[in-house]
Amino acid sequence: MSDDRRLDVLRAIVEDYVATQEPVGSKSLLDRHQLGVSPATVRNDMAVLEDEGYITQPHTSAGRIPTDKGYRLFVDRLSTVKALSPAERRAIETFLTGAVDVDDVVQRSVKVLAQLTNQVAIVQYPSLTRSTVRHIELVALEGSRVLLVVITSSGRVEQRIIELVETLGDDLVADLRTRITRATVGERLPEASLKLAEMIETFSPNDRPVVTSIVTTLTQTFTNERSDERIAVGGTANLARFGSDFDTAIKPVLEAMEEQVVLLRLLGEATQGLSVRIGTETGHEGLSSTAIVSSAYGTDDLALATLGTVGPTRMDYPATMAAVGAVARYVGRTLADN
Amino acid sequence: MSDDRRLDVLRAIVEDYVATQEPVGSKSLLDRHQLGVSPATVRNDMAVLEDEGYITQPHTSAGRIPTDKGYRLFVDRLSTVKALSPAERRAIETFLTGAVDVDDVVQRSVKVLAQLTNQVAIVQYPSLTRSTVRHIELVALEGSRVLLVVITSSGRVEQRIIELVETLGDDLVADLRTRITRATVGERLPEASLKLAEMIETFSPNDRPVVTSIVTTLTQTFTNERSDERIAVGGTANLARFGSDFDTAIKPVLEAMEEQVVLLRLLGEATQGLSVRIGTETGHEGLSSTAIVSSAYGTDDLALATLGTVGPTRMDYPATMAAVGAVARYVGRTLADN
DNA sequence: TTTGGCACTCTCACCGGTCAAGTGCCAGTC
DNA sequence: GACTGGCACTTGACCGGTGAGAGTGCCAAA
User: Fold this and answer.
1) Where would I find the Heat-inducible transcription repressor HrcA C-terminal domain in this sequence (chains A, B) (predicted)?
2) How many CB atoms within 10 Å of residue A100?
C-alpha cells in the first residue's frame, strides 16, 4: 500500500469538495482525477483516512467530506500556494495606488481582498504601538483645552482634545512642544511613553500637574487599546457562501464581525507569514465551520498589523492564501512609501 | 357599511401580521381583536381592502398580508408612536453619557439603536458642511509638508497632510494661521471656503501659489463628499429577522450597507422629524421588502445629520419610530453639549 | 496489494391522501 | 341596506410509502 496515494486521495477529496460543495464518493472522485486505480482501492484508502480522522461521512451511504484535521493536513502538506493571475495582481495594484491616506489604504484593501477571495475581509489599521513617532504637535485651543496630534511613521494621525483644569501659558505650550518632540520623535511609542515620564521631572514643580495630565493622555493615546484596535471589515455580502442556515452559519459570523475584541483575537498576533486557522482552531465557538487566513503586513523588519479573511472551512485555501499574502505585501509596501 | 371599521380591520391585520409573521385570516383575526362583528363581515371588508390595494393574498385560501400601500396607510393614519419604556430611555442615556468624543458618540448610538429596534442601525456622522469652524490649525511638518487640523462646532476633528512644492517659512505659516483663523472661525464651512478664497488676494504675489494650494485643500476638506459621508452601521446580525431567503432578503441589504453612497441616499435629506420609507419607496431595488425609518438629529435650529434603521417592511413601526426619534433627540443633545 | 462483484444502507425526490385554514358567495335576518 | 351563517371550494402543509441512485463494506480472486 502506498502512503503517497492515500494523500493523493485526500487532496482529491478536498479539491472536489471545495469545488462541488458535495460529499465526494469513490466513483465520482475518479471521474475528475486520474489516480490509476479502481474505485475499490480508493474506497479502501478512504476507509483508512476516515479511521485516521481526516475525512468523515455525513451519513452512511454518502460520500466523504474532509474534517478540520483533513483540511489542516491539506494546507500543511498537500497544497501549493497558487500564483495570482496577472489580472488579480493588477486589480490589487490599481486599487491601492490611488489611496491618499492611511484610512484610504485600509478601506481599499478590505474591498479588494473581499473581492478577490469572495469572503469576508478584515484589515487591522497599522498598529500604533509598533510605529515610531514622526511628528507630535501640541496646540492651545480656546479656554483650557489643548489639542494633541500625533503622526506616526506609518502615516496614521491620532488626535485628542485634553481638558485641563487651568489655562496654559503660550510659552509653556511652546516649551512643552519642543521638549515632547525632543523626547519622542523617532521613538517607538512604548519607549516614547517612558521618555515622557522621565521628562516630567525636568519641569518646575509649578507646572508639573499640567504637564503630567498632558503626558498621561499622550501615553494613553500611545498605548490605548481602543485606538490600537481599529479594524475595517468588508465583503459581508459574501456570507452567502457560508451556508444556507442563517442561525448557525451566518449569524455567529456577523456577530463576531461586530465585536472588535473578537476580531482582534481572530486576526491573531502579527507574526510574519501566513497563518491559517481552521474550524475549532479559531478558538471561537460560533466560527467552528469557518476558517481564517491571515497575514501580518508591514516593512521587512517590522510587522505593522494583520489582515486576513474569514470564510467557510470548505474554501479554496491555495487561492485564498495567495490573495491574502499578495494584499499584505502590497499594503506593506504602500504604507512604507508613505 | 362603516368606513371606520374597515380601517380597524386593516390596523388589526397589520398588527397581527407583524406579531405573528403569518398571513392573517378573518377568523384568527377575531380571536385577537374584538371587532364586534362576524368573520363573514370581516371577509367582506377584507375583500374591499384587497380591491383597494391595501392587502393581498400570497395565494388563494391563505390569509391576507398588508401591501406597502397598506403599511403606508397604517403609518400615516392608523398608528400612534409608542412611548418608550423607562428602561429603554435609561438604556439610551447610560449608553450615550459615557462617550468621550464624536466617534464614540456615533459608535454607541449605532449600538443602542440596533439593540432597541432589533434591526440594522445606521448613523451618519455630524455633517461637516453644516457645522461651524471652532478651531483651525496649521502646522509645519518636516520637509515641505503641512498638517492642517479643523475642529468643528459639533466636535469633529478632521485633518489632512498637505504636500507642498516648496518649504514654508515659519513666519509665513504663523501669518497664514492667524489669517485663516480670522477668516473662518465661527463660520459655516461653505461660507468659510468663500472667505478663504477672498483671503488669498491679501497675500503677496510671491506667496500666493503656496497659499492657494493650502486653501484648496482646506476647501476640499470642508466640502469633500468623502469626509461628509462617514457613516456607521451596526446590528447586522439582526438581519436574521429579515427573512429566511439569503439571496433575496439578506444579501441585497448587506450589499447596500457596504455602499456609502447608497446608505446616504437611504438616510435621505436631513429634514427635521421622522421619515418612513416603505418597500419601493426606498428607491432601491434590493430593498423592496425593507423599510427605513430615519430622523435628523441636531440642535433645535440646525439638523446636523441623519440616523435611522433598516428593517423588514413587516416591522413594529410605532416602536421603531419611537426608538429612532428618541435616539436622535439624545444624540442631538449629547453633541450640543460638546 | 489491487480489483471486480455483490449485498446492503441510506437519503432524497416523488406521489397521493388527508387535514386545517381560509376564501367567496348566497340566501336569510334584522 | 348591512350583517350573518352556512356551504362548497381551493390550497398549502403534513405524513407515510415507494423506488431510484449513490455510496459503502466486504470478500474472494487475480
Assistant:
1) 103-321
2) 10
Task: Inspect the interface and report whether the beta carbons of A139 and B141 lie closer than 8 Å.
Answer: no
Total count of domains within chain B: 3
Same domain membership, residue B153 and residue B279: no
State how far the Cα of B334 lies from the Cα of B330, in Å rounded to an integer.
Answer: 6
CA B89 to chain centre: 20
Query: Are residues A42 and A33 in contact, defined by beta-carbon separation less than 8 angstroms?
Result: no
A251 close to B (CB below 8 A):
yes
Has residue B81 been placed in a domain? no
Which helix (H) or strand (E) segment holds residue B14: the answer is: helix B3-20
pLDDT one-digit tens code per residue, B325-335: 999 999 999 98
* DSSP label of A64: B
Count how many pairs of residues, chain A against chain B, have C-beta atoms within 8 Å. 76
- Whole-prediction pTM: 0.88
Q: What is the pLDDT of residues B294-320, one digit of tens each?
A: 999 988 778 889 999 999 999 999 999
Q: What's the rounded Cα separation, in Å, for the pair B164 and A141?
A: 26
Name residues whose C-beta falls within 8 Å of residue B240's C-beta, 6 or more positions apart in sequence: A246, A247, A250, A251
Domain boundaries, position A210: 133-223
A28 touches strand D (CB under 7 A): yes
Cell of A181: 518632540
The beta-strand segments (E) located in chain A are: 55-56, 65-66, 120-124, 133-140, 145-152, 157-163, 231-234, 274-278, 290-298, 303-312
Domain boundary among B36, B55, B76: B76
pLDDT of B118 reads 96
Q: Is B244 near strand D, with its CB below 7 A from some atom of it?
A: no
First to last CA, chain A: 57
Q: Which of B250, B253, B257, B261 should one mutate to test binding to chain A, selecting the residue with the greatest count of A CBs within 10 A?
A: B250
